[in-house]
């Protein structure tokens, strides 16, 4: 008998800057071929090392606006002068095929995703290990003024205040340990009954 | 900073006979010192190789009845001529200390546990890999008649029909793979936000 058929899931990682989320996302993608990074659409220009459809879908502001109006985005946001959004089509197609999709988005994007896809969403908030360590990581360059660091710290605190909206909370004290926790959550959520659309069929054959 | 304080959880494994649950439970306990087996009370007699308080709490029928009336059991049942039950006290004490407790109980016990401890409960249903394999495992001895095997199969099918009441469903096709899934579920559930009673305190220190 084959594996039990299941729906894919959307795994959201959120954290303040300086919690190591980008490294965790990259290592998760490298270690598990069953999960793919969501590719966002953006109105900003392509940089030399970027590829359309791989790093981003690069679209005009007019096209972005059309897509937003047509409800084609699972979530979208303004960041500085540009717009960013997750096109729904490719994500929903992967989910239907039993594939999983990873999102590196903030609490606002997560809230929007929740409204569109409550049951398929699994959200993890990654915390830095301590106040001192967070400050150290936010002080990226030696010449950063205290004021700049204080501003980054306030921004981090604002993002952190949204931890109660997440399914799981982990502390990135050790990158291998944090990665292990994320991989465990992914593995567990893949075995969640509500996602296993093929159990009825499997059990019917088992007890024939 | 120390780890985030959390409540322990109750991990329930249920399955029909012949799905390998007993081996999975033993291997989980061996591999993870943070989870302990729940010890049941029973009215049956102690066997030579058993220890009171380790294998079971051996009690008189009168004492069992008193405990049942005092609501001292998380779940209890009649099996043949004897009574079995899970005393609430030791379990709740372990949970409060952040320890996890493993239960090897059937669907009826699981239903009773749910009523007493909904939030602390994590339930996994273990399925055998196929009809033929289940039949092979239920035919324990060569001299078992077709009728005996058919009766065991019907009992297994009745237990299996309760899979929709569980949080997770796994197939024990390969013992190492199934153990990995159970360990992932345990690890994930330990990071579930609703269990992490210490996040508020941790975050307050982080963003001071």
Determine the oligomeric state from the structure.
homodimer
- Binned strand content of chain A: 15-25%
Identify the strand order in the major beta sheet of chain A: 2-7-1-8-9
Radius of gyration of chain A: 19 Å
For the residues shown, what is the average pLDDT of chain A? 93
Q: Which spans of chain A have pLDDT < 50 for at least 5 consecutive residues?
A: none
Largest sheet of chain A: 5 strands, parallel
How many domains make up the 3D coordinates of chain A?
1
Extended strand count of chain A? 9
Biggest interface, CB < 8 A: A-B, 43 and 43 residues
Structural class of chain A: alpha/beta
CATH class of chain A, named Alpha Beta
Described by the principal axes of the CA atoms, the overall outline of chain A is globular
Fourth CATH level, the homologous superfamily of chain A: P-loop containing nucleotide triphosphate hydrolases
Helix and strand sequence of chain A: EHEEEHEEHEHEHHEHH
Helix percentage range of chain A: 40-55%
The CATH topology of chain A is given as Rossmann fold
User: End-to-end span of chain A in angstroms?
Assistant: 13 Å
The helix count of chain A comes to 8
């Amino acid at each position: 008998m084959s594996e039990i058929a299941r729906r894919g899931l959307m795994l959201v990682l959120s954290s303040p800057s300086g919690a190591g989320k980008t490294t965790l996302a990259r290592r998760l993608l490298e270690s598990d071929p069953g999960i793919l990074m969501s590719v966002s659409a953006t109105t900003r220009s392509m940089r030399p090392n970027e590829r359309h459809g791989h790093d981003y879908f690069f679209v005009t502001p007019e096209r972005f606006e059309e897509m937003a109006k047509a409800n084609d985005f699972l979530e979208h946001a303004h960041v500085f002068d540009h717009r960013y959004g997750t096109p729904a089509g490719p994500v929903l197609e992967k989910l239907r095929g039993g594939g999983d999709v990873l999102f590196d988005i903030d609490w606002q994007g997560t809230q929007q995703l929740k409204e569109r896809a409550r049951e398929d969403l699994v959200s993890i908030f990654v915390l830095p290990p301590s106040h001192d360590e967070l400050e150290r990581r936010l002080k990226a360059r030696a010449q950063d003024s205290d004021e700049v660091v204080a501003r980054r710290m306030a921004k981090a605190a604002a993002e952190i205040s949204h931890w109660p909206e997440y399914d799981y909370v982990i502390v990135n004290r050790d990158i291998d340990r944090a990665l292990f926790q994320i991989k465990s959550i992914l593995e567990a959520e893949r075995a969640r009954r509500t996602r296993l659309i093929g159990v009825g069929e499997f059990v019917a054959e088992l007890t024939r």
